[in-house]
## 1
Amino acid sequence: MRIAVCVKQIPDPATPYELSPDTHRVVRPNDQVLDDTDRFGVEVGLQLAEEDDGSVTLYSMSPSGSLQGIRQALAMGADKAVIIDDPNLAGSDALTTARVLAASIEREGFDLVIAGTESTDGYTGVVPQQIAEILDVPSLTFARKVEATDGAIRIEQQTAGGYDVVEAPLPAVLSVTSGVVEPRYPTFKGIMQAKKKPIETLTAEDLGFSADQVGDTGAGQAISSVSVIPAREAGEIVEDDGEGYLRIVALLEQAKVI
Ligand SMILES: Cc1cc2nc3c(=O)[nH]c(=O)nc-3n(C[C@H](O)[C@H](O)[C@H](O)COP(=O)(O)OP(=O)(O)OC[C@H]3O[C@@H](n4cnc5c(N)ncnc54)[C@H](O)[C@@H]3O)c2cc1C
């Protein structure tokens, strides 16, 4: 099975995000990390590939930077990576991202595309389904369990009330929930091998997109303003001198919850 796994490089969530005062966009440092959501997609891809001697190719649309995030996923065991790095892509919305990723995946060929249900930074949660629509293949979303059957994929799709069993023939697109599998930790050998694994870098033009079809210009929306969320007011500590409940009831009435 030829498995394409979409992986996002994001600023390390442990460090506070910086927004550019000019573009209102997240400032992307040179060292970005693998979006934690995508570790699950990589692991599902590796397990399915191990079942039938398949291959796992990573696809990422982001500034290359130090490629730290990509090497993390290669160290887990993916075979190679395709990164679409082009300054014209800055400011791309989710739909443009999906179009660019779909074009790069179609160029290589695929049987299964895997992505996270939603990223950690933008979390629009629409890219996997958009890729499926653009590639004109079925999408199996919110998978909490994945099984490859003869020429098809069967999932337990997480729902509010539990799960549904959904199946579709390959080729298809799959989005996985965090927790679908236990992602492996890269071994020292894996980390060393990742340094030599092929990473192909493409531009938007290589994929047939002109500059005005991507980035800010190609986006269906523009950020008009960004404002800092006001700090939350400190709560009230109710000392219970035996009648503390009266103050609680008064606060609940004030908040119109009783
Ligand atoms: C704070 C913030 C807010 C944003 N708000 C919006 C918005 O309201 N509308 C909008 O259209 N765009 C928005 N964007 C831009 C959007 O985040 C990017 O276009 C992004 O690349 C795709 O969207 P997502 O991460 O929200 O995708 P999601 O659909 O949440 O991502 C799901 C999965 O798709 C794959 N994926 C997503 N992006 C990439 C990528 N670049 N490379 C490889 N795989 C990827 C990953 O597997 C990921 O787990 C925002 C970005 C930020 C940082």
## 2
Amino acid sequence: MTNLRPQITADAAAAPAGISFAKDIAPLFNATDIAHMKQVTRGTLDLSVYNDVVVYASQIYSRVSSGSMPPPPSKAWTQQMVQLFAGWISQGTPP
Ligand code: HEM
């Protein structure tokens, strides 16, 4: 995977302080996202589970910032959602 650090840092600069998984990140994933990704990864990526999202954080950031996930007909993430996720990574993935 290419070095995403500079891009993550740039996006995180626009994010608010005090981001948490429970309050800010978990609500970014809807039921369709959670069901499909559990199936596609045979249960290794449950987008509602904190530890799974931490392990896949760089891959998730890469996919939502490029717009390849969620795939159509789901709507791509807004820039604000991508910046929030980048901010969470930069703040050390608080639970
Ligand atoms: C925000 C929501 C989503 C995120 C963050 C996400 C993230 C990811 C990630 C990280 C992978 C690579 C997994 C791996 O290599 O082990 C992936 C693959 C995949 N996802 Fe998603 N996904 C999302 C929503 C969806 C939805 C809604 C669908 C189906 C309708 C979907 C279908 C797939 C499929 C088929 C693959 C395997 C093919 C590929 O690598 O492109 N995903 N996704």
